[in-house]
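re: ur msg from earlier - yeah i can do the zinc ion complex, just paste it... oh wait u already did. ok heres what im feeding in:
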Amino acid sequence: MGKIEDLIKEKNLKPSDCVYHTWRDALNRRKQRTGKIRVLVLPDRIARVEYKCPECGHEDYTELPWKRPFSVKCSACGFRITVPRMKDQAKREAKAEV
Ligand SMILES: [Zn+2]
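and the outut:
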């Protein structure tokens, strides 16, 4: 992890430059918060995704076209890591974007 952080520093990005930015726990099959996922979307509609797979612990960075609902497949074990949109998380998201 740290690639998105580097990108933000390198491009000197402000929250207002981001279409979407979130960093949250990723759930494994047993709904345990054992992983992390960070998504940064810029006006080019490309999602920069950084994750730690909740199933196998593999860490990776990838870029994908942005769409909702959003999910990314672990490059090591194939587990699909989703970015859920729940009410309380949407609130937390709004706070993080300030
Ligand atoms: Zn995995």
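cool cool. Strands lie at 20-27, 33-41, 46-52, 59-65, 71-73, 80-82. ping me if u need the other ligands too
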